[in-house]
Model the fold of this input.
Amino acid sequence: MRFSTISALLCAVGVLAAPSTSQEANGLTISEDGKCGGSTGQTCLNSYLGDCCSKAGTCGEGAFFCGLGCQKQFGGCLPTYKGKLVSQNGMCGHDITCKGSKFVMTVSANSTTSAPLTTAPVATGGSASLSTSSGKYTNTTSSALTTSSAAPTWAFNNWGGITSGHPVATNTTACSVKPTSTATCVRCEGQPGTDKYCGLTINDDSYAVVPKTCNQVEFSLDLTECVVAPDGISRKALCVNGQFPGPLLEASWGDEVIIHVTNSMTRNGTSIHWHGIRQNYTNEMDGVVGLTQCALAPGQSMTYKWTAESYGFSWYHSHLTLQAYEGLFGPMYIHGPKSAEYDVDAGHLIINDWSHIPVDDMYNDAQVAGVRTMDTGLINGMNINPVAKEGTPAGQRYTVPTEFVPGKKYLFQLLNSAIQSTFKFYIDGHKFTVIAADFVPIEPYETTVLSINIGQRYEIIVEADQEVGDYFLRFDNQNACATTTNSDDIRGIIHYAGSPGVTPNSTAHTYPRKDNGVGGILGTCEDEPLASLVPILKKTVSSPHQTVQHDVAVSNSNGINLYRWYLDGTTFQSNWGDATLYSIINNDTIPTYSGDLAISTSLGEWVYVIIESPVPLGHPIHLHGHDFYVLAAGYGNYGSGTALNLDNPPRRDVAFMPGDGPTGQGGHLVIAFFTDNPGVWLMHCHIGWHVAMGFALQFIEGQEQIRETVTDTCLVNDVCATWRPWAQEKGIYVDDSGV
Ligand SMILES: [Cu+2]
Done:
């Protein structure tokens, strides 16, 4: 495949489970005719959502084909089905293959002359490797992972060039829980005032001081498999407290936030990450599987506890594979000062792209063939059905519950929680004022159309200054970087008080939109102009102590013919059963399976990170543990002539590395952060497919100090200790980056 097709390259993730020899496992019936799925509704074992198999009755064909995880469970479904054997027990892959698998087309000529998979991957806690020459799995060891108290050799030989085993960390140090203070918390003690924020304002440095509210807010989140129909078409999904998106978590600047997360899913490990929360000295609460915790096993609960040192709007989401994009996410709002006045908080507007089959089921094709076209976009989990047919429910547009009253000003919080899509937001006929970018209040600026990339948030104030009427608000998908069938019909509705209250016929704003020359609108994937994003709290950036440069590449020349993203030649790999923080706590070592994608930094230093790529595709880059400074971004390579803005540059936690498919331009992004937060912090592209395909790295910040910052090392150990035997029993195998 040539680079010209890469702009559409997408990927996903699979969870691979070892086949069982039983026809009954996990309460699911296995097909007897080699056709997983089918009219009797038999399902695969341990598939991502429980029934990844084709409704047409074959593994991997039709509109509801399997995810790759399932297919691999069934043995890779090699191209030997014609005239060859199909499994008697429905579990193709031991020594026979299933019919007509999609995977047939993807494993390449490497496998056509070889016998199919001979041994199931990781059946008993041994390791499995995908041979880079044959494209097939073989077991390499059978050393059993018995219990978490043993010292297992749990070698994860994932694809991506990892060839040797990695000894899993074991407990060599007794775990400990820091005693909690018994002193009574005195509200606003030693602080300049006694108001809601103890006299602290938008001009105070929230990285250095937070209101001592003595307030705790507590939530419980229950993660489940579910069926949702956000646009009238039902499909399997993952839900938080039975909702999609999950419930709003609200706190105020300075509060202690306590969230009890329960994994009630049956086949998935999980975690919850609190996007943008700095987790200052609370690294173990960052919720990144393989970095700050092991996967939380089904049936287990874990309590996250952190202080809301930042304020503004954000979201929480699973940080294990593609779960966030199946529905494991929700909004999070930390109240704090604003940089402009408003009358009414009109609530949030969450935009995400949406497909009528689970993204996990799109994994196979996305990974090998590029372009995925999503079906639509949802605003706060709602939209009308773009492919409504007779008898098909049509869904519903989101309507802002607050009616506009002329002369009043309305605050909105915006979030892009898409897997692949970049949007432009606007309200027909209206302009608005932007007052915050991510968790950073900015000098207010006015615009009519706002670019919002994945993971980014903006707070805006809209004045009701138009004729009383009904107006669309819109998130136009920018097809230049990722396509959506319904790209121009992702709309919500605003009614003015006294308006007819009907479906609007308002006119869309016009803005420059590239087309493809044959009538197709491509638009532009970009960030807001950097010059517009001026933080209220001014900070300057010093010369770097350390510069990290990463050339980003994508390749399928890895013997498996599946695309992976590479940073300087290495694709990222985490291990759900051996988190980096666990290794540091117990062995003071950093796992080596990430190759050179674990970068150590000392404390008290400025680190510059340069990310550049010739591939004409943009990437929203997110860093955990910090708001970073955006020093430069542009098309083409970074060079000595690239001007760096060190004087109060934009500060946020997601920034877009430009890239443009239509014009074939790659780009660069230069960010900086100050190492003041000991911990293990992920930096990654927030395109779901890309991070799953290895576009990630971890910073090990102040390694010597990390252990002493962890309040409860027993918690870290316990989560790993419960995950390992569960994963062993189920034969869970990570076949992508894991994050
Ligand atoms: Cu990317």
In short: The pocket of copper (II) ion is lined by residues 619, 685, 687, 690, 695 (CB under 6 Å).
